[in-house]
Sequence to fold (558 residues):
Amino acid sequence: MIDRDNTRQIVAGAAILGLFLALPLFGFGDYWIYILTIGFYYAIMASSWSLLVGYVGRISFAHMAMSGIGAYTSVVASGSFGLPLILSIPLAGLVTGIFGLAVGRLCLRLHGAYLGLTTIAFSEIVRITITAEHEVTRGSLGLAAVGLFETTDRVPYYYSFLALLVSSLLIMWLVLRSRIGLFFAAIREDEDAAASLGVKVVRWKIFAFTFSSIIAGIAGSFYAHFVQLVTPSMMSLQEMGFVLSMAVVGGFQNIFYAALGGVFLEILLEVLREIGEWRMTLFAVVVILILRYAPNGLFGELMRMALARRTRK
Amino acid sequence: MTAQLVIQGIVKRFGGLTALDQVSVEIEAGELVGLIGPNGSGKTTFLNVISGFYRPEQGSAWFEGRSIVGREPSALAAAGIARSFQVTKIFRRISVLENLLVPGLTNWSTGPREAAKKGHAILEGLELDRLAREPAANLSGGQAKLLEFGRIMMLEPKLVLLDEPFGGVHPTLKRLMHDTIRDWNARGASIILISHDMGSIFDLCRRIVAMQNGRIIASGPSEAVRKDPAVLRAYLGTQSAKVAS
Fold:
């Protein structure tokens, strides 16, 4: 469930959106526009993953695989079959939705470590299959993808990804503030109790998997048509680790905080590029510390402190 | 006329353990039945079968003329069977009112405002309305039991299954729970009440079903079951039962 008295959050969200809308107008460098665009992609991935984990209580390590399925679907459909992007991207959403539904159904009775391990296995099956299927996918060399736009200017991409981020957050928010969000919370808290009160637990768990997969698939297809290359490495467990860290650091019990975590950590990763692979170690340490000392995530903790200060006043 | 709930020859096994062994019982609409028996006698398993959480290996179960074996708990809740749990299962991280909105909104023809209005009215009756916006985690053990009652009331059930509702509850709250149970019953709901609190059982129930080792050992009016030698043996042991009878 989304907090009901969230005026402050809406104001903060509008301010952040205003800032992102204005950044390219202030002559922000091409490089940082590129980084922020990637950051928006990760924000979509982290927030849609947090919907599943934070709101329904279902862990999944197959989220990047869903993104990859979406990316490959759109790239193959547009590249090999000549489908226009306006059709290949929705097709990517549809195909990942079907995969999400299948995984959701398969994992219905699984919890915790069993569910996590099953989704890891699924993710690896997808990645290895795509790597091995050289004739269609060119294996680890990857497939070239057409761009979303016929320009090399990155600003249109920046705004497209921002629009995709805002619309996916909006759709998720609308779902979460509806009765479905309440059913998610009930399932997360206690499946038996939810079922005894008439909540169709099976239906809503499958819906959650499918819904978050569709968002991941569409985000993946956008990503592929932005970087104009799709490789199996985008589905690696390391990539999944990034998304997980972003959601945890931002605050995976709130889709907006998780999204901020995505942008924030992508920027941080770039800032720390000078220290090479050590940044990954630092990344992991930050995640451990956040999990231990700020389970609501960095932004969740900041908001909590801000609200506490306001209450004291 | 056919009974509201008809259970015939139910067998439920867990590995080598037979938790329910040829259990047959009928509950008429509007009955308030106490289900008693020592620990491990199969009472909760019986409730789990009726509410759809366990599928029996043998036997049949009918509610208002429809078979309920193999139906999902959510479908049975929609059909009018509501239950509480031995260990309270409230949704701790959402508010007290939202706990009530969960069952209130499972019917898609009910809007959020309508459900909230009904929820507030129920909370007021349970003396919990001042806590409506509090996270349910802040409730005391007794209040949590009352909240479970409130959620059941949102469903307007025809059959209520209560599993040890009075465990660890303050006498004042227990009185309120007794009144609520009587009120449900007066409005036409049938109730099966499991409790080790014999005072409450004899106070509330006109009929008692006693179980031991997965079998029904006695069934009938409260006073008769109270004096039944098999029930006395089950509760007090053979020697003590002789003395008591």
In short: Chain A has a mean pLDDT of 90. The CA atoms of residues 96 and 217 of chain A lie 5 Å apart.
